[in-house]
Write a structure and sequence with these properties.
- The chain has about 90 residues and is of the alpha/beta class.
- The protein has a single domain (about 5-85), classed as Transcription Regulator spoIIAA (2-Layer Sandwich), CATH 3.30.750.24.
- The chain has helices spanning about 30-40, 55-70; strands spanning about 5-10, 15-20, 45-55, 75-80.
- A hairpin with a 2-residue loop joins strand 1 (about 5-10) and strand 2.
- It is globular, with a radius of gyration of 12 Å.
Length: about 90
């Protein structure tokens, strides 16, 4: 399953809901964040609740995205994947 991304803006905060796998050679998230940063958006919430798998490449992308957002004076909040939540 590839990565599905839905973006919505609420009170100047970009909420990004994702589903699927965040893994090797999946650049859509990083490209979308860069487009939004270029538009002047700086505050993001990444909802990882429906992410079923993250590999080291995907984790590296999250770190790169966090760095890009922080360098523009923004804030990034990650909502944890449901597979990591305590039951």
């Amino acid at each position: 399953m590839s990565l599905a991304i839905k973006t919505r803006i609420v009170s100047d905060v970009v909420n990004i809901d994702m589903a699927g796998r965040l893994c090797f050679l999946e650049f859509a998230l990083h490209e979308q964040i860069n487009r939004l940063l270029d538009e002047g958006r700086t505050d993001f919430i990444l909802n990882l609740a429906d992410i079923s798998y993250i590999d080291s490449f995907g984790l590296g992308q999250l770190i790169t995205i966090w760095t890009s957002v922080r360098n523009r004076g923004g804030q990034l909040i990650l909502l944890p994947p449901s597979i990591w939540r305590w039951r």
